[in-house]
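Tokens as discussed.
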């Protein structure tokens, strides 16, 4: 058989056009901003030998990958090398305990009904650790990731429509009622957010969608007021040894990509002590009243 002649690549790519179904799938994967000419230039040579039906199948399979939960609920080679463990495999609740109100749902941990938190009981959180996870919250929703004993919470929230979003100290990615994030880095409600918690020694860092929004060393006198706020609420920043807990606050919430590793002693974690977002005066006044009421409740009763 005579080998076919190779045409000019530029003329080949000009002849390649995606049908409507292919275009819709392409846009789903890469975004509609890429022009049809760019699509042909980028992928014409690669997919020219295929029929349109095959091309549609390939793109469809690629498009479905992000929705299967496989890519999020798996470890990359780099994550494995750093020592991450996968706490949720995307299909069952092995290692987790709940009262039947949480369930695996299309590669996610889904809070579907009342009943309490979902707790990972296979092992406690290490003293020095990095935790990665993705979260998605319902409209006006509230949840949280508890990672040390007591009121030690990475807040998960629909900032724009929940009352806690009015106070940075109780907004998404805050160390709840202690340290506000430096900014609101949440994505629009209904989209997935990427959370990350890094703790070593007295350093605490909260990340949201790739941005470090909380970073402080609680042994620094600069944060004495914030540390005291959490103490009044019931949190001890020196406490260790809790089981990871995903909060049921009465709203629909989804988690996936839950990954944990121990930070070795030789790996430095140095705080930049970044400046948190300012708390509005009206919220500061509410906090003062709350603290006063809590302290009065904790006072010993006068002898009769």
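Sequence:
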């Amino acid at each position: 058989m005579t080998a076919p002649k190779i045409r000019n690549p530029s003329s080949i790519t000009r002849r390649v056009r995606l049908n409507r179904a292919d275009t819709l799938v392409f846009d789903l994967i890469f975004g509609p901003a890429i022009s049809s000419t760019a699509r042909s230039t980028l992928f014409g040579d690669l997919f020219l030998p295929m029929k349109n039906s095959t091309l549609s199948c390939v793109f469809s399979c690629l498009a479905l990958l992000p929705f299967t939960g496989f890519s999020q609920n798996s470890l990359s080679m780099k994550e494995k090398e750093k020592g991450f463990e996968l706490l949720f495999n995307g299909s069952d609740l092995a290692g987790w305990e709940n009262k039947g109100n949480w369930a695996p749902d299309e590669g996610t941990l889904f809070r579907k009904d009342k009943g309490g938190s979902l707790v990972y009981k296979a092992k406690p959180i290490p003293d020095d650790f990095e935790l990665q996870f993705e979260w998605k919250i319902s409209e006006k929703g509230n949840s949280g990731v508890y990672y040390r004993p007591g009121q030690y919470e990475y807040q998960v929230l629909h900032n724009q429509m929940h009352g806690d979003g009015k106070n940075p100290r109780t907004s998404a990615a805050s160390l709840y009622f202690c340290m506000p994030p430096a900014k609101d880095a949440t994505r629009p409600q209904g989209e997935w957010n990427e959370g990350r918690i890094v703790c070593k020694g007295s350093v605490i860092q909260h990340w949201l969608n790739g941005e470090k929004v909380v970073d402080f060393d609680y042994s620094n006198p600069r944060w004495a007021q914030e540390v005291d706020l959490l103490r009044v609420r019931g949190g001890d920043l020196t406490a260790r040894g809790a089981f990871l807990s995903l909060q049921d606050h009465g709203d629909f919430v989804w988690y996936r990509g839950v990954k944990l590793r121990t930070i070795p002693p030789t790996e430095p974690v140095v705080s930049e002590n970044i400046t948190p977002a300012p708390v509005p005066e009206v919220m500061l006044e509410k906090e003062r009243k709350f603290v006063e009421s809590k302290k009065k409740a904790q006072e010993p009763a006068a002898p009769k």
